Protein 1
Amino acid sequence: MPNTPPVKLTKKQTLIQTVKYFLFAASAGLIQGITFTILTETGVFRDSDRKYGPSYLIALVLSVIWNFTFNRKFTFKSIANVPIAMLKVFGYYCVFTPISTWWGNKITGMYPDLEWVQYATLVGTLLINGVTEFLFYRFVIFRNSINTNESGKKEEAKKSG
């Protein structure tokens, strides 16, 4: 795909895009939360001093795949090269994951006897991740390919004509 300038979204399109992103992100968060809960409650990593980290990382990978797939197709309506777009997502998570795993282990390590702290930490991390990832998707990954799939082209045609 040639390097094209970003599409100028209307206020309505921007609002719809934001709402769609966060609905898909919420569903990814649900997947992450359920996976995290199963891994935490079944005691898969119970013998580890750092049981938050492995549960968090496995749950995160599942949610990222889900979130990327649906947001690429339905929110950003992009035909961006999937391997390149996923490489950019990987780059984002090369920064976000170590930092969020560090603060998750740090916070939960301060209160090892309070199980709810793990869940509160996860919720806070999900919120930070949701906002920063949306901005990264919107202004880095899909900046020049918004509304380039069939559905997006139709949307742009309606807007122009």
Protein 2
Amino acid sequence: MCKPDKDSYMLLGLIPEIGSTTAMRLLRHFGSPAAIFSATKERLMEVERVGKKAAESIVKFSKSINISPVKDALANIGGNFICIEDNNYPGLLRSLQDSPTGLYCMGNADLNAPMVSIVGSRICTVYGQSVARKFAAAFARAGLTVVSGMARGIDTAAHIGAMEAGGKTIAILGCGVDVIYPPENIDLYKKIIDNGAVLSEFPLGTRADRQTFPIRNRLISGISLATIVVESDTRGGSMITARLAAEQGRDVFAIPGRIDSPSSRGCHALIRDGATLAASPEDVLEALQFSGQLKLSLGDTCNPSDKAPSSATVQSELPGNLGDDEFSVLKALDALDDATADAISELTKLPIQKCLAALLMLEIKKLAGKNKNGAWQRRAK
């Protein structure tokens, strides 16, 4: 299989007057960037909605733009360019009519891992921040990558929650990946790169403005199995993201709030109009599993201790429809009083992340839960 011509895709994205929708129309018509660049103005104008101005821009700039400085600048900041033909290009984005032909990337995350996006208002309440962190942490423990936009407020809380739980998070920017916006999030920006990735379809140096944010919002929703709106008024970027998610065939969830709070009006409007009410992270996970979009796999059981019975033995004593890790953890809860995750990990010999994932699944299945002191215990049969 031939390597994709990344340079041509990068060049296509740098040509003025050519947005993602037009670029995809051209690619579907001509088959490759090289064929687009070799076409005459007249042939270019045969493509639907490609007018004289766009055709002239392609003819002119495809021969005059030098991408070497762009590639050097990207290499200098440790970034890379992922074109639509790359294996690690997000598969969910390929299904969009206006897929970006390429993404600038900082960090190293699996862009085809199951993802959910958490979005909300920049001006949010303490309740909203707490909920965003809680949901993000739960999703991270379940093995999902949490996506948001690195904005102030809910976005920031979502990224932090995912990383606090030891999970992956991705920020999709409305500016170049080398532009930190808002500037006070510089430390968050660095942490996201270390624990996931920062993505943008915009060329390096692009500044954020009112036009770029709605454009990037379609990627936040498009790369995700579901979008969860935590807090929003009836207008704003989060509502745009939710609408785009619905148009893209993605699930939309909204967190309810106080009926007299402006920051919850948008969420209540979404629920009224058909979005699914999410009162807990489990509501989202259960819905995604039920629809077949998500299959949580907790992996094989690690070497159990002498005290831990085999999964075959456990299966005769415990409820069915449990994974091996869940059997081991549930059996440990029978042996421990008010167990911590660390204690369960020590008894079962499972890594702490597998324990946390198993505990989350047991909580979803209403077989385990936390008491008022925050310790894990088995729920009454």
Protein 3
Amino acid sequence: MANEEKFDSLDDLFIHQLEDLYDAEQRMTRALPKMRDAASHDELRDAFSYHLEETQSQIQRLETIFEALGKSPQRETCEAMKGLIREGEEMINAKGNDTVRDAALIAAAQRVEHYEIAAYGTAHTIALQLGNREAAQQLDDTLHEEKNVDAKLTEIAQSYVNPAT
């Protein structure tokens, strides 16, 4: 059996969650430019560009948390993000009506955001349980950014993309 995990403490689980998030965000820095370039609506392209900058800041936050824990940043392959990005690439490469493709890109992006909201919420809760308030605050900052991106994508869908289809 490949790479069986072992968690002897909540600290072990916390590190694993951080490594998974670190990998997920690294993957997103490669996916977001492709999504931006595939989008036809200016608002959507701008949202993807802005979130790319946020994602780079989120990576820095994770690196800060690793450093505070005395760990070097490591990546644990995030299979969920790999799958979500693979589905997103299907939308990027899809043919057809540009506005409908934008709706498909939003759907793919929101799946990613919902995964990240769940993952950051979990890591935030573990940090609080460990009494690591600094890490919890940084994770909470990212959690709020992810929720804001999700809300922005919904707004774009409702205001610009879906009414035009």
